[in-house]
Predict the structure.
Amino acid sequence: MNFKITEINDDSSEINLVQNFLYAQIKEEYGIGPTPKFHYDIEGIEEYYILPERNNFFVAWDGDKVVATSAIRAYDLDYDFFKDVYSKDDTASIWRLMVDKNYRRHGLARNLVAKMEDFARSKSYDKIYLHTHRYLEAGLPFWKSLGYVVTVEEDDYDETSHMVKNLI
């Protein structure tokens, strides 16, 4: 398979394709539709990923079809247990890494993570934060294989594992 990975363009038709892809993936993986509480950044791709200089959104294409996505932005979460640990100045956070099930096991996710890590280094971030869910079969093993370390495992309804990777 021949894939092309690009940075998202500020083009409404491309943004719409990406949004449709993301919502289809979320429906398939999590069984929910668009939910503003969780998906505000999808509706605001331009605001969250295109306009800020230290943020980015990557799209993997098979021809004109979106087959995978990933996004990186300055850390902007408000978890009490990370207060004074991460900041928007030194920490990037990974969002929206999704690969169409028909395109998995071809290295797309690893290539997208490499793009995000290179981008983060180029923008002088010291570390990258992410969270995943223990019920996602491949989540923790995948991230651990790339050098991400679990920092907090919540006992919440979503089985959230918080992870970090130092870049320096």
User: Anything to note?
Assistant: The longest strand covers residues 65-74. The helical segments are 12-30, 36-43, 45-50, 108-122, 139-145. The chain has five helices and seven strands. The two ends are 34 Å apart (CA to CA).
